Amino acid sequence: MIALVSRSFGRIARLLVSLIAVLAGFQVTIVAAAASLAAAGDFERLGQILPAFVRQTFGPALTSFDGMVTLGYFEPLIVMLFVQFAIFLATEPASEIESGLVDLVLARPLPRHWLVSRSLLVMISSTVALTAAMAAGLWLGLWWLAPAGVRWPDGRVALTLSVYLTMTAWCFGGAALAASAWARRRASALAPVAVAAVAAYLLDLLGKMWAPAETLSRLSPFHYFNGGAILAGTADPMRDLAVLGALTIAGIALAYWQFRRRDL
């Protein structure tokens, strides 16, 4: 198992290190932008001109210094980067089937479920590493750039946002792992889940902007990750994380079941 995990990390090492650097730098940049707005006293004016659905989605993240520095945890591009990266990592078993490498690996007396466990471990640990990089960038930026006298974000709120972001990535990673247990090519597993993730985000956004779609948006995993509600203290973490966790476990369980019974 150690050799399988090491080989997988060797494949993605440069990409993972690059993403860690980008996300840490992004967090520092967000702190710098928030410090500039706080120094100019622009937060109050900014809150008055924002559309209603933007205030609902981002809440205090655009109206206060301590809120804005946590924006990276639920900024759409960052969230989608996490989700797509988890999907990419979780489809590794399908890649090995496509290349024929799985025949060489399983020629040894190895349990075939190790291939699923390996990709699951790599996906989980890599997304945690990205979240840790964001946390390091946030607190480094605060220590370096935060103006004197401004309120820093509550550590528990930052931790909660980190958990939400990680669980959302794991949710789609579990779905991709299940898809790869059926697919014979990586693209056949990656593309449907990646497109479904984008569609799910747009569905949740539509539910925030258009009341008739609000009920339908509950089908989207992103419905259970509302950064503005978390900052405002109106979210229900127990319910949200239970839903995301249940979806993740369902995808992982399905992947193990199918991969064990499939014809490789």
Helices, by number, come to 12
Strand residue content = under 5%
- Count up the domains: 1
Helix content: over 70%
Unreliable runs:
none
Describe what you observe in this structure:
With 264 residues, the chain is mainly α. It has one domain. The chain has 12 helices and no strands. Helix 1 runs parallel beside helix 8, helix 9 crosses helix 10 and helix 9 runs parallel beside helix 12. The mean pLDDT is 87.
Kindly summarize this structure in a few lines.
Helix content is 76%, strand content 0%. It is an all-alpha fold and 264 residues long.
Structure keywords:
264 residues; mainly alpha; 12 helices; globular
List the helices and strands and how they pair.
Layout: H1 2-40, H2 43-49, H3 52-58, H4 65-68, H5 76-90, H6 92-99, H7 101-106, H8 113-145, H9 155-180, H10 186-209, H11 227-232, H12 237-261
Helix pairs in contact: 1-8, 5-8, 5-9, 5-10, 6-10, 8-9, 8-12, 9-10, 9-12
